[in-house]
């Protein structure tokens, strides 16, 4: 047991207490230990700083070793100021936390306002990227001005287009007037002049009928054939060429009507490319000598001798003189689309009920020898002269041209409602009233009137689109036929404009119209153009806005990326825009500062995370270790549940070491207990086995006693019988004595026999007494055994009680054992009880045995006394034999004594019977005790078996 | 001069504890396992204090503690456990076995010495 090797150091220490240095040879460890001791001394002495230095040295030198660990432990216990987190970082964190709170508050307030907006739109707006938001803001900021400017431009352009439309219409009308009116006048004048010149050159006096008659042919040829070689049209377009005499009577007439006037179907639609062919004219033959002197212009020329020109309204009657009434006659059409455009009532203007003709008339005086001899009249009847109108339309490139006699449309290319030309319709009163009331003005005024409309005019014109008066003409929107037109009207004047320009009043109008659809098309074009420009500008704005927005958002994006990087935990990143002085610069600087703070925080958090992870790992490892330890412990103690009480779980470093120890001690105590129980059971078993034969002997002895007592009883009965026969014999002896003396000898013999019998009785009583004494001894033995059994049973009971308590502590595992222990306890109790009852019985038997003994003693004494009496009787008989006479007296006494004897014998008999009963009872009890012992032995065996389930030795 | 009996199986730890206690002025005796320690205790004058490791080859220090506690003469000797078992219930169990104190290894030298000084008779 004692290991001398291990105790070497112990002994050496005891031998040399001063030797405290470690006894191993590792010098490094030796050195470290020395240092540790030194540091410890320093620490104990209170020199903490020095001690700390030495400890730190040890900790550095022996990082993982025992000394290092101990040194670090010591360092940790030495009071030290804990390292503090730099306050700047803390305050920075606090500040940022506060500012976040403030922002949060504002945000919530803003959110409150924003709740007025639909949440979807708000969400979508919030989800837009900043670039898109800025773009949207810039573009929407640009859209309004662009839209306003575009709309304004479109409006202005529209006005200008409209103005342009109007001025172009004016220009067209002017040139139309120039081409058509002035040309026909000029051309007619030329022709008339030529005619006059030819007449004059030929010296024809037109007022001399003779000459006329002579030169009629020539004159006719003059007026019917082309005169000038100039413009080809000059030949063909004139409706009439007439020579008159001094009074205005026609001398020669060349009247033509163009086919178009008579056959309007062929000229239904204007055909500007059509050439007027001479063949298309129809010569009209009318009687000569028609008087034209009543035509005002002719009368004026005949009066003044000056040539006159003008657009003249010629009455139908005059026209019919020339045979032109067919061309001139146009039915008046009263077709007005609206009350605004209603014409003047019929009759306001004298148009000869639709048979008057509007004609360009040039009257050239022909003088011969300074004497007016006649006139040359050349002119064009405009009524229905479609070919002429169409030809001139070609020249001025104007459509919707009309020529009016007063307000009556006499020639036009405007289509009417029925598809034909709108001849005969009346101009609206709103036009005819002002135009036809306008006197011809001086050429200067004309010039002013013809000037290009100025800016203010245009402005004024814009104010009154319905009707525009530029001093000369008028604009009118009207519906002719089925179409809407903007028409420009100008007045036509007759020859009075030359004679009396201030008084001259228009006798007709000419108008050029343009379909308002054209204007609308133009305006629409302009609008499209304007919108296109606006769109292009907008697109340009958008294209400009995107990079601008990007440039703005770029800084923010950079800040956002930076924040993302910082958010992702990237360290060392900084925003570069921090040198800017604007809000972005401020934000960038703040973010940089924030990043510094966050990096510091992250580092701290990472460190904590690392610590936490290490701790978690440590905990996990410890948990695993604990589980391993528990599993190992469970495996170690597994045998206990099978009853192996020798298991001894190792007390390990792990957490279950203490539990293992507790288990070990419990198991050990249980083992001790079970061992004790086992021992007790064995002892009980042994005792039971050992006592079994003696118990059987007791039983047998008891049985023998019973039978012997029976025999004794018989013998006592015999004694009784003998006493009675003594009595009888005494009676007989008395009779015999009474009879005579010869019986004295017989009496003596009988006395001897009696003495012998009494001796036998005495012997039997003695024998019975001795047996009773042996019985008493046996009882003593039984009592001893019982005491032993009782003590065993009590001890067993106690042990079983302890065992059951321990088994209860062992829990589930001890359940079986506990039951057995309980059973043992109960049996032990029963054994104790049986033992006690046996004891009581034995005590009773003993008591009665003592009484029997006493009775026996008494019986014995009385037998001895009887024997003495018999001997005395024998002596007396002998003396009676000798003295027969005294026998009678003594016989009485004998008889008395034998009766007493018989009574005593009965009492003996009774007592022996009692003894017999008691003995039988004793025998039964002895057998019960033997049986109980047998049971006890069986129980002890069972207990042994139960205990043997436990393994107690290795 | 007071004596301390140290039961410790670790060679280096035995050396260190011996050195520390020796320096503190104690007579130090050591044993490396429970059987050896028990033998020593039965055959020598009782020490003033016993320093016990728990985990050792063979019987544990706890067992030795109980053996001492059950011994009529030895039971009054104060016992200080010195173990690397660091759980609170280890300390609880060890103290319940009758020990006066429990020092967790590794310990600062002062810690052990203070404990020994506190409990030594």
Q: Explain this structure to me?
A:
The complex is a heterodimer of chains A (954) and B (121). Chain A has helices at residues 8-15, 27-45, 48-61, 66-77, 87-114, 119-127, 130-201, 209-224, 232-237, 259-262, 296-304, 316-322, 325-328, 386-396, 429-436, 443-450, 455-463, 496-499, 516-568, 583-637, 656-739, 742-810, 815-882, 885-948, and strands at 240-245, 250-258, 281-284, 308-314, 357-368, 371-381, 401-405, 408-412, 467-469, 474-480, 483-493, 506-515. With 954 residues, chain A is of the alpha+beta class. Chain A folds into three domains: 26-77; 158-525, no CATH class; 656-948, Orthogonal Bundle (Helix Hairpins), CATH 1.10.287. In chain A, the strands form two sheets. Chain A has a six-stranded antiparallel sheet with strand order 3-2-1-6-5-4. By secondary structure, chain B is an alpha/beta fold. Chain B has a domain at 1-58 and 79-93: Rossmann fold. Chain B is built from five helices and five strands; from the N terminus they run βαβαβαβαβα. In chain B, α3 (61-70) links the parallel β3 and β4 (79-83). The model of chain B has no long low-confidence stretch (mean pLDDT 92). Classes of the chains: A alpha+beta (954), B alpha/beta (121). At the A-B interface, α1, α2, α4 and α21 of A face α1, β2, α2, α3 and α4 of B. Chain B: This is Response regulator. Chain B: Residues 3-120 form the Response regulatory domain. Chain B: Keywords: Phosphoprotein, Two-component regulatory system.
* CATH level 1 name of the domain at 1-58 and 79-93 in chain B: Alpha Beta
Number of helices of chain B: 5
Structural Rg of chain A: 87 Å
Q: Would you identify the regions of chain A where 5 or more consecutive residues have pLDDT less than 50? A: 1-25, 81-114, 228-234, 442-451, 460-469
CATH superfamily of the domain at 1-58 and 79-93 in chain B: Response regulator
Largest sheet entry of chain B: 5 strands, parallel
Shape of chain B: globular
Estimate what percentage of residues of chain B fall within beta strands. Answer: 15-25%
Radius of gyration of chain B, rounded? 13 Å
**What's the story with the biggest beta sheet of chain A?**
6 strands, antiparallel
Strands in their spatial order, largest beta sheet of chain A: 3-2-1-6-5-4
* Biggest sheet strand line-up of chain B: 2-1-3-4-5
Secondary structural class of chain A: alpha+beta
Given helix and strand content, the structural type of chain B is alpha/beta
Q: Which of globular, elongated, flat, extended, rod-shaped describes the shape of chain A? A: rod-shaped
Helix content of chain A: 55-70%
| Overall tally of domains of chain A | 3
> Which range does the strand content of chain A fall in?
5-15%
Q: Residue ranges of chain B: pLDDT <50 for 5 or more in a row?
A: none
The percentage helix of chain B is: 40-55%
């Amino acid at each position: 047991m004692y290991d001398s090797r291990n105790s070497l150091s112990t002994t050496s220490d005891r031998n040399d207490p001063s030797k405290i240095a470690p006894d191993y040879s590792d010098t490094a460890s030796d050195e470290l230990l020395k240092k540790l001791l030194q540091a410890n001394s320093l620490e104990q002495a209170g020199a903490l700083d020095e001690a700390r230095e030495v400890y730190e040295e040890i900790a550095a030198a022996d990082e993982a070793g025992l000394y290092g660990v101990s040194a670090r432990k010591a360092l940790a216990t030495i009071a030290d100021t804990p390292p503090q987190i730099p306050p700047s970082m803390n305050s920075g964190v606090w500040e940022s936390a506060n500012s976040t709170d403030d922002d949060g508050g504002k945000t919530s307030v803003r959110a409150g306002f924003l709740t007025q907006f639909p949440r979807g739109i708000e969400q979508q707006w919030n989800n837009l990227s900043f670039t898109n938001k800025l773009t949207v803001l810039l573009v929407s900021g640009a859209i309004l001005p662009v839209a306003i400017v575009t709309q304004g431009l479109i409006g202005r352009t529209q006005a200008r287009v409209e103005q342009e439309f109007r001025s172009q219409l004016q220009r067209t009308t002017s040139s139309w007037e120039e081409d058509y009116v002035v040309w026909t006048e000029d051309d007619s004048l030329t022709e008339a002049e030529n005619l006059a010149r030819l007449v004059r050159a030929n010296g024809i006096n037109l007022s001399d009928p003779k000459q006329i008659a002579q030169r009629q042919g020539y004159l006719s040829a003059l007026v019917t054939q082309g005169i000038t070689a100039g413009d080809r049209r000059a030949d063909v377009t004139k409706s009439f060429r007439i020579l008159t005499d001094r009074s205005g009577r026609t001398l020669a007439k060349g009247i033509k009507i163009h086919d178009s006037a008579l056959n309007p179907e062929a000229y239904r639609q204007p055909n500007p490319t059509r050439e007027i062919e001479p063949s298309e004219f129809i010569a009209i033959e009318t009687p000569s000598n028609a008087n034209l002197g009543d035509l005002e212009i002719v009368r004026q020329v005949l009066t003044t001798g000056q040539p006159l020109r003008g657009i003249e309204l010629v009455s139908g009657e005059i026209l019919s003189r020339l045979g032109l009434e067919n061309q001139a006659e146009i039915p008046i059409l009263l077709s007005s689309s609206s009350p605004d455009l209603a014409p003047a009532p019929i009759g306001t203007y004298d148009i000869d009920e639709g048979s008057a003709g509007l004609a360009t008339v040039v009257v050239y005086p022909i003088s011969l020898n300074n004497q007016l001899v006649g006139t040359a009249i050349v002119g064009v009847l405009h009524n229905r002269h479609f070919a002429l109108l169409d030809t001139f339309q070609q020249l001025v490139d104007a459509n919707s041209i009309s020529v009016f006699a007063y307000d009556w449309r006499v020639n036009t290319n405007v289509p009417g409602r029925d598809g034909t030309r709108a001849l005969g319709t009346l101009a609206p009163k709103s036009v005819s009233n002002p135009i036809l009331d306008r006197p011809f003005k001086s050429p200067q005024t004309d010039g002013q009137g013809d000037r290009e409309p100025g800016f203010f005019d245009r402005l004024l014109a814009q104010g009154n689109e319905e009707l525009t008066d530029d001093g000369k003409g008028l604009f009118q929107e009207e519906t002719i036929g089925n179409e809407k037109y903007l028409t420009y009207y100008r007045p036509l004047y007759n020859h009075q404009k030359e004679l009396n320009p201030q008084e001259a009043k228009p006798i007709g109008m000419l108008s050029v119209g343009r379909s308002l659809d054209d204007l609308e098309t133009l305006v629409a074009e302009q609008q499209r153009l304007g919108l296109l420009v606006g769109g292009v500008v907008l697109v340009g704005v958008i294209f400009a806005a995107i990079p601008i927005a990007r440039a703005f958002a770029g800084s923010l994006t950079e800040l956002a990326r930076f924040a993302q990087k910082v958010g992702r935990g990237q360290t060392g990143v900084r925003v570069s825009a921090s040198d800017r002085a604007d809000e972005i610069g401020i934000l960038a600087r703040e973010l940089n500062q924030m990043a510094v703070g966050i990096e510091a925080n992250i580092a701290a958090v990472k460190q904590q995370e690392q610590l936490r992870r290490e701790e978690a790992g440590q905990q996990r490892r410890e948990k695993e270790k604990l589980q391993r330890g528990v599993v190992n412990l469970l495996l170690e103690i597994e045998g206990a549940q099978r009853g192996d009480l020798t298991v001894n779980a190792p007390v390990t470093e792990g957490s279950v070491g203490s539990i293992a120890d507790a288990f070990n001690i419990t198991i050990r105590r249980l083992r001790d207990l079970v061992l004790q129980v086992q021992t007790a059971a064995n002892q009980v078993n042994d005792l039971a086995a050992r006592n079994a034969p003696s118990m059987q002997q007791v039983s047998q002895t008891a049985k023998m006693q019973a039978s012997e007592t029976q025999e004794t009883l018989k013998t006592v009965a015999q004694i009784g019988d003998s006493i009675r026969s003594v009595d009888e014999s005494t009676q007989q002896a008395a009779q015999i004595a009474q009879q005579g003396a010869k019986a004295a000898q017989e009496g003596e013999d009988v006395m001897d026999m009696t003495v012998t019998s009494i001796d036998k009785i005495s012997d039997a009583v003695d024998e019975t007494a001795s047996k009773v004494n042996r019985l008493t001894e046996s009882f003593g033995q039984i009592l001893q055994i019982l005491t032993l059994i009782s003590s065993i049973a009590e001890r067993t009971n106690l042990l079983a009680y302890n065992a059951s308590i321990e088994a209860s502590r062992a829990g589930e595992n001890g359940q079986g054992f506990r039951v057995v222990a309980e059973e043992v306890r109960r049996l032990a109790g029963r054994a104790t009880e049986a033992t006690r009852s046996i004891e009581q019985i034995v005590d009773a038997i003993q008591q009665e045995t003592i009484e029997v003994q006493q009775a026996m003693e008494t019986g014995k004494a009385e037998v001895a006394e009887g024997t003495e009496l018999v001997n005395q009787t024998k002596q007396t008989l002998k003396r009676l034999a000798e003295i027969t006479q005294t026998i009678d007296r003594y016989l009485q006494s004998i008889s008395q004594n034998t009766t007493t004897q018989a009574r005593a014998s009965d009492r003996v008999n009774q007592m022996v019977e009692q003894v017999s009963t008691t003995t039988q009872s004793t025998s039964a009890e002895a057998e019960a005790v033997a049986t109980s012992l047998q049971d006890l032995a069986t129980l002890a065996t069972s207990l042994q078996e139960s205990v043997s389930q436990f393994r107690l030795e290795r | 001069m007071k004596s301390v009996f140290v039961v410790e199986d670790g060679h280096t730890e035995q050396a260190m504890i011996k050195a520390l206690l020796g320096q503190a002025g104690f007579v130090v005796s050591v044993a490396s396992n429970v059987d050896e320690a028990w033998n020593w205790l039965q055959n020598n004058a009782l020490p003033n204090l016993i320093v016990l490791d728990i985990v050792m080859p063979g019987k544990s220090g706890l067992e030795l503690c109980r053996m001492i506690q059950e011994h009529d003469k030895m039971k009054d000797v104060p016992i200080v456990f010195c173990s690397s078992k660091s759980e609170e219930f280890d300390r609880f169990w060890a103290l319940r076995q009758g020990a006066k104190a429990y020092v967790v290894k590794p310990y600062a030298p002062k810690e052990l010495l203070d404990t020994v000084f506190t409990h030594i008779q």
